[in-house]
Amino acid sequence: MIDISSFQLQAVKPRSVEAIASSEVYRFIVGPEKKEYDIHSAVLANHSPALDAMVNGGLPESGDRIVDWTDVDSSAFLSL
């Protein structure tokens, strides 16, 4: 499993409800149990610079909007 406890998370800037509601939805597949979470990209981008880069920076995950984090523990993911 990947240890995500060292991720530095900080709010980037507030977003309007309209911006959040109209943003693309990303599906995270998390943990060995492959639990699925659908999260708006504006929420992810606002949560941390690293997640902002993931959804807005042209990384492979930004194209298909599916992020496979099966090596991350679900409880750790939910604590982000």
From TrEMBL:
Coiled coil: none annotated. It holds the Pfam family BTB. Residues 34-79 form the BTB domain. This is BTB domain-containing protein.
